[in-house]
Amino acid sequence: MRISYYFFLLMLLEVFPLAVDGQSLTKQASVTISGEVKTPVELKVEDINKMELTQVTKKDKNQVEHIYSGIELSQLLSTAGVALGKELRGEHLLKYLLIEASDGYQVLFSLAEADPEFVSRKIILAIKKDGSLLPSDEGPFHIIIDGEGRGSRNVRQVTSIKVKFAD
Ligand SMILES: Nc1nc2c(c(=O)[nH]1)N[C@H]1C(S)=C(S)[C@@H](COP(=O)(O)O)O[C@H]1N2
Ligand SMILES: [Mo]
After folding, report:
1. In this predicted model, what pLDDT tens digit does every residue of 75-114 receive, in sequence order?
2. What's the number of domains the chain is made of?
3. What CATH number corresponds to the domain at position 146?
4. How far is CA 99 from the centre of its chain?
5. Ligand 1 geometric centre to CA of 135 (Å)
6. Per-residue confidence at 130, pLDDT binned at 50, 70, 90?
7. Are 163 and 97 a contacting pair, CB within 8 Å?
8. What is the C-alpha to C-alpha distance for residues 41 and 125, in angstroms, rounded to an integer?
9. Average of per-residue pLDDT across 7-34
10. How far apart are CA 114 and CA 124, in angstroms?
11. R_g over Cα of the chain
12. Is residue 6 predicted with pLDDT exceeding 60?
């Protein structure tokens, strides 16, 4: 009895703080948009959740389709004052987006690829999958590209988006 009591206490100490940490980690986590922007921004999951969300479907490796919801990259970039649409011309076409993840993984998109006036295929920074916040191995922020055949640019656990000039 005594042993199982200690075991129970140990379980509470081990499991409960972990569960709390998981939730607060998602709450505290943020994504930054910086570099060639008017105003750098740092957004939390709840900030993005208040914005207009767009849905993109993607099949997983077992061919099961999932509905991801998130903010379109173009909208996200406009919160930082990045020039898009008619203003995206001339030297601005030399800009690219460097997407960085917590494991050091990096991928880039040309800025024009994220502008719906150039490319109608949507790219979102997803915060939800099938209606729930993303699991920690994917999120809290996950780039999802509509209809892209290869999975490698769907960056999981995004921490920052940097707007840069190719020179
Ligand atoms: N952060 C991060 N995202 C990543 C990767 C990675 O190594 N780190 N690998 C990419 C590659 S190469 C693929 S094929 C897909 C795999 O996603 P899946 O495990 O959800 O199928 O994730 C992409 N996103
Ligand atoms: Mo991959």
Report:
1. 999 999 999 999 999 999 999 999 999 999 999 999 999 9
2. 1
3. 3.90.420.10
4. 9
5. 14
6. very high
7. yes
8. 15
9. 68
10. 9
11. 19
12. no
